Amino acid sequence: MIVIVFGVSGAGKTTLGRLLAKNLGWKFHEADDFHSLENMDKMEKGVPLTDEERQPWLQSLRQLIERRLVAKENAVVTCSALKKSYRRYLRVSEEIKFVYLRGTYELVAKQLRHRRGHFMKPDLLQNQFDTLEEPAAGDGTIVIQLGRPPQELAEEIKAALEPLLTRAIP
Asked: First CA to last CA across the chain, in angstroms?
């Protein structure tokens, strides 16, 4: 099984993804590691990426997901996956489960102010919210409301995944 933790920049995807992967004993992959240097440079300058610029990044993530599934390895992947089309592209099998980290602009902006050493500029947060297409009710996405400590949120995600873990690769 591959769990994709998604949401806007600053929502806590990396922190929660790492905690979840550790709690489950699974591999962890940060989608930011798959961006080209050109894309990271643009975002560092506060310039939003176009869909065309994101496509090679999404393709790399899809290939990673396919490799993990073929190798029968469970993993947690963090990825903004702001658009429904991105999530459709990454859902290569029924073994892909999405976890959406939902928070208000104010809450995420506060979290971003405390983040250090990341290439994504806080100026792009409004663009992220403008681009975000929230999952529809009933599409199978686990929705986690932010605003609580990371360990508590990771435990909530794990509990929501419990019924599905019997299908995870042993």
From this structure: 10
Per the domain annotation, does 61 fall within a domain? yes
Q: Tell which residue, 82, 75, 94, has the closest CA to residue 58.
A: 82
CB 125 within 8 A of CB 112: yes
Rounded-to-10 torsion of CA 111, 99, 77, 53 = -80
Domain hosting residue 94, numbered range: 2-163
Is residue 169 in a domain? no
Whether 170 is in a domain gets the answer: no
Q: What is the pLDDT of residues 50-104, one digit of tens each?
A: 889 889 999 999 999 999 999 999 999 999 999 999 999 999 999 999 999 999 9
Question: Is the CB of residue 137 less than 8 Å from the CB of residue 93?
Answer: no
Among 22, 65, 19, 57, which Cα is nearest to 38's? 57
Alpha carbon 149 to its chain's center: 18
CATH number at residue 15: 3.40.50.300
Does this model's pTM top 0.70? My answer is yes
Question: What are the tens digits of pLDDT across the range 95-112?
Answer: 999 999 999 999 998 877
Length of the chain: 170
Q: How many domains does the chain have?
A: 1
Rounded CA separation 5/144 (Å): 10
